[in-house]
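[Automated response] Your request has been received and processed.

Submitted sequence:
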Amino acid sequence: MTLFNGVYPFYPQQRKAFVFDVSTIIVIVVFLTFACSFLLIIPGIRGRARLYWTLRVLLSLLVGVVIVAVQFTGDWETGWVKANTSYKSFSCALVNVDIGLHVGLAGVNVTLMGNPVNQINETINYNEHFSWSFDADYDHSYSEGLERGLPSPILYVAEKFTTQSPCSVHRQYRISGHYASATLWVAFCTWLISNMLFSMPVLVYGGYMLLVTGAFVIFSLLSFSTVRNSPMCLIQFGTATLRTGYGGSFWLMLAIGLLCFVAGITVVALHYFNLDLLKTFFDLHEDKAEEYQEMSEVYVNPHFVNKGLSSPQPSKLNTNSI
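Generated structure:
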C-alpha cells in the first residue's frame, strides 16, 4: 500500500465484469444480428422447410456464438468464500466480506464485496482483473495494484498467481489457457467449414466437420483441466478457505461439444441409412418437388401429338403419358 499525505489513495479506474465484458457483449450482439436477419426472411420459406431451416440456422449460430464468446468470459473456474479479514495494510480493522476468484483463459478476476457493502465508512465493492495474455504482464498488473492501494484480500489472492509466488501456478494456468484458446479458434474454423459444406450437396462431409469441431472443443476442455492435476495453493482467510471448481463457461463448452458430436453422428448415420430423410431435412428435394408439381399437368394441341385426331380443341394431358 502507498500513502499520500497519510491517506490511502484512490484511483478511479475501469471495472471489468467477472463474467461478461465488452468483447463478450459485442460477440453476442453480432450473432444476434445474424439471427434476427434470418428471422426476417424466414416467412418467405414455405412448408415444413421453414421449420427445418429455423432449427438448422439457430443451432448453428448457437454453436458459433458460444465458441467465440467463451474466449472472453472469466468463469471457466470460480470460487467464493465468506470471511472476516483485514481490509487494509497497517490496520487492525476487520470487515465481513465475500471474496470471489474467477479464472478465465486470459487472466483472473478477484471480486471483493462487503457484507453489507458499506463498512468502516467505505463502500466495499471491488472487481479487479489481472491478465496473463500474450500482450500483458501479470506481474506488472499486480505491481500496479500495489501502487493503487487495492484492498489486502484482493492483493493476497492475486499474489498467488504471480510468477514469483511459491504456489507456482502462474505458468500452468497461463499455458493451459493459451492452448485452450487456440484450440477453440480451430474449432471455430471447422464450424465455419461445416456450414459451407452443408450449403453444398456434400452433407456427409459437413457431418464429419461437425465431429471435428466437437473433438477440438473437447481438446480445449482437456487442456484447461490439466491445471487441476497439480495441487492448488490454499487461499486461506482465517479459518475460511477459498476453493474453486469448474465454472459456467467450462460446462457450457462441454454441452456444445456433446451437441456437435450428436449432430455430426446423426448426419453421418442418416447419410448411410436414410439419405432421403437427410436430404429432406436439408431441403434438397424442394426444388424437384416444386418443378414436378408445376409440370404435372400441361395443355397441348392434339394436332402435334396425333395428326389423325380431328378435334382442334386442346385437351388436358398428363405428362406421365407422354
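Summary generated for your ticket: The chain has ten helices and nine strands. The longest helix spans residues 170-198.
If you did not submit this request, please reply to this message.
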